[in-house]
Structure formats: C-alpha cells, structure tokens
Amino acid sequence: MSNEKTTVQTATRTYRPVPDKLEPTSHERSFQSLFEPQGVAVVGASPKPGLAKNILTNIVSSGFDGNVAAVNPNYGKVDDVNCYRCILDVPFRVDLAILCVPAESILRVLEECNRRSVGAAQIISSGFAELGSEEGRARQQQVQQWAKGSPTIALVGPNTYGVVNLHRPLIAVGESRIPSIVPGGVSCVFQSGQMVAIMHPLIARGIGISKIATTGNEVSVTTAEIINFFADDPQTTVIVSYSEGIKDPESLAAACTRARRQGKPIIMLRVGAHSEIQKTINRHTATQAATSYESDIRLLEELGVITVDSAEDLVETVVAFNASLRPRGNRVAFVSFSGGMGNIMADLILATRGLRLASFSDQLRKHLADVLPRFANSFNPLDLSAQSAFDTKVLRSCMQVLGASGEFDILLWGKDLPLSIDDESPVGLALNELVTQHPEIVLVPVSQMSGVSQGREIDGRPPVFAGRPLLQGTGISVRALGKVIEWHTSKQRVDR
Fold this sequence. Notes:
By secondary structure, this protein is of the alpha/beta class. Helix content is 35%, strand content 19%. The protein contains 15 helices and 24 strands. Strands 5-6-4-3-7-8-9 form a seven-stranded mixed sheet, sandwiched between helices. Strands 11-10-13-12-14-15-16 form a seven-stranded mixed sheet, sandwiched between helices. It is elongated and about 80 Å long.
C-alpha cells in the first residue's frame, strides 16, 4: 500500500491506517528488561501468604534460569531464596524489580531502583488513585512525575498482578494456580490482573501463551506501548487485550497499525459500554477515559482491531484464529449428523456479520443425493444422518463431491461433544482426505456443547483435529469465526 493515509472501505467497516511512530520510546527500548530479565528482585517478599510470596514462588517453580532475590530487611532468606535489606544490596544486576511494598514506600524504593539502574519496575501495590481519595490521587501523581523524570526505567502499574513470558520461562504473577507451562504465540496486555486466568482455558484448548503484561493504573507504561512491543515480537502471533479506557489514542493507532502490517490480529475486550460502571472502573484502575467507550470502539474498529464483549468471546476468538487457516472467502457450508444442530448453526451463520451461508446449486445437490442415504438431505446445512457416521464409503464420497464443487470456502464439521476426531475413524479418514485434496477449503470442526466432556477421553489432552483445536459451542463459535473471517477479508483488501 503506497499511500499510508489512504482510507480503505470494506463491506462492513472502515480501516484507517496511520503512520508508525518514527522512533521507539524509552519504555519500548527497556521492555527487554520486563520480559527477558537476567536478574529479578521481588521487593517486599516474605514467608507470609500473599501476592509477594506467590510471585516469588512462581518465578522459582517456573524454571526461571536467571538470578532471583527477595528484598526485605526482616529476613535473610525467603523459602530458599536469599533475601537482602534493600535493592542496593542485591549482588547481581537487577533488570526487573517487582514491588510489593506499601504504597507509601513506593517512591523510596523507586529511587533505589534508579540508583541501581534497574531496567523495569512492576508495581504490584495498590493504594493510589483507584482509592478515590485525595491522598491516593496525590500519591499516584507523585509516581507519575517520578516516572517522567526517570525515562530509562519502564514503570508498569501501579495496582498490577505481574508479568509472564512462557518462552523464558518467567512466571511472575500472584496467581496461586499455575497451569502446566505451554509456550505459544498468544501475547496479552491486561489492565485487570484477574484476566491472567486466560492462561487456563487457552492452555486447556491446546493453545500456548507467549507473554502477559498487566498494566493496572498505567501511570507510565500504557496498553498501546505493550501492543507496539508485541507487534515486533517474533514470539507473538496473536495479541489479546483487556482495556478500561484508551489513554493515548494516537499511540494506540500507531501500535495497531504496526501489528496489522505484521499480520498479527488484536482482540480487545474494552469494557464500559454503560455509564453505570464508570464509578467501578474509576475505583478499579482509576481510568478517566471510562466515558469514551463509544469513540474508543469506533477507533478500534477503524484500526482493524477485533472487539468482543465478554471473556468467553475473547477466548473463543483466540481459539478461532488457531483453528481456522486463512480462507479464500466467507462462504460457509455446515455438515453434521444432526439436523437440529444444522438448523441452529444455519440461523447463527445467517445472522453473523462476515459470514455467508452457501446456497448449494441444483447440480451439487444432485451429486450429493447420488452418494448419500435416501433419508439424508442435500441442502446446506447438510444432515448426513446418523447412519452415515459408520460408513466410510458414504463419508468419503460426500467429501469428494463437496470438495470438487467449489461452492464454499469454509466447511464447519458439526459434533455433539468437544471430543477429538480420531484420524483413523471413518470421519477422520474422510475429513483428512478432503483437506489433502482440497487445501483451498478451510475445515473447522465445531462442537454443539462446550466445556469439559466426560466421554472416552480421560487423559487430559485437549480435543483437536489435525493438530488444531475444535471450536466449542454454537453461538459463541459462530461469533468468533465471523470476526476472524472478517479480519482476514479486510486485511486482504488492505494488503492489495
């Protein structure tokens, strides 16, 4: 695209590219210390239960191979980790300082970090503007002014939950239930620490995490800067965000544009659609941009960001990007052994922006009728009837007819429960043959029900087909797939 300021109109929305920032900020240059530290100090760590202890425990148990120190004048050791009086006493270089001390002690500790040339400081502590008090606002303003005067330190927070990099590996969050480490390509930036729990459903679906940053009140480092970092990060393929308000729209526009040029989708849950929750947002992260929801959503959609309305949609949209390869178009055929599920899915597809329910031609219907049992139908959605599930010849013949038709781009294969498709089963053989002979068709299995199934799979492995996760649930899957296909379609038009 030769003209950077050109506005590209798609069938459903406008994508407005903007120029990249010419120079990286000081924060961007020091994010290496945040995500790839060689030395970490947890300031305020103690043997007492709490976030500080959880963070220290997680760093050690995650297999972090750098240096780790606890900082607390009351202890010589915390568990098996050496503990020092202050950060100035730590005998190795500290790239990342995680601050878990009372809010009134933060400035003092930050000064010590500055004297020690720490690269990044993550403030876990609360007690700032989110209190809604003059004291809290004044304290946050002091930290903000300090950050402006110390541009070489990437200051994240306050009021955060920590940071994760599963490729390091580094797990430095207050979560007490850490899933088995599965590194992957999904990177996240959350204003809310609770959203770190997204690791659990994604890893349970066979999708690995790359990095997670929690930004809290964002007195210095913002969501936009983290997205900008992820845009160029080779270990990131999909960017996920939870936002309570966009503080720097111009920087966010540049970051989103950079990510889009790199082919990395951004999926964002921007809360605050109703004015009634403005007070709760202010008391959560003190985000004053809570009243700009509608303008934020317009900006995000113009920038090609995928916006969702719930945590479930956030997860399923990530799964949809992993389950579906880039399609050539948006024509959808739905095939299953259930007429009921077919009717449900057809209604949803017809109502979803970005998807088209393919209408089978008379010729295709005739060819299907020739190979299917007489009690199956030959319309889209296609009900093969339960008997076909046991007949490899019928299934393969049906897939061959469908594949040769050229009348659709995406085939949704309907299942009752979220169970893997056995490659050697009649269904697995037929579907694998279709994928091999017609790679232009995107095949996406989807289950009618979602959640944990008590079927024959008891080994804890995620349900997959051909190494990719299944979509789960009807409405949530179709919404997610529609957003993914729409993103691919608009990107193709922009790239041209």
